[in-house]
Design a protein that fits this description.
Strand content: over 45%
Order of helices and strands: EEEEEEEEEEE
Shape: globular
Distance between the termini: 7 Å
Length: 107
């Protein structure tokens, strides 16, 4: 990235590799941690808008819950991102996708 921008999480998936449940998953971006106030089970996914409004979905895409969290801002240049949960199994797999908003990103 050439400058800071707002980000949309679209989506955060707990992969259906093995049955897992993550309580209050925490996304850390450049040292700033933000906790999602949800319980995420295998196959479910969450999406969050730039203002921190989130929705938890079932595997089939049905809305299960709405939540609010602190917004995430990506910085110019490289961004360090980690995802964790206190009760996460070492065998659990998850995927996070960010979509950038604003002016096109020039590399």
């Amino acid at each position: 990235l050439s400058k800071p921008c707002n980000a949309v999480i679209e989506p955060l998936h707990l992969m259906k590799h093995r049955q897992s449940t993550w309580e209050q998953p925490t996304l850390t971006v450049n040292g700033k941690s933000v906790t999602l106030p949800i319980t995420l089970q295998s196959g479910q996914f969450a999406e969050v808008t730039p203002d921190g409004q989130g929705t938890l979905y079932s595997l089939g895409g049905h809305e299960l819950a709405h939540f609010q969290m602190d917004p995430i801002t990506l910085q110019a240049g490289d961004n360090a991102v980690t995802l964790s949960a206190a009760n996460a199994s070492e065998l659990a797999r998850a995927a996070v996708t960010f979509r950038y908003l604003g002016q096109p990103v020039n590399n």
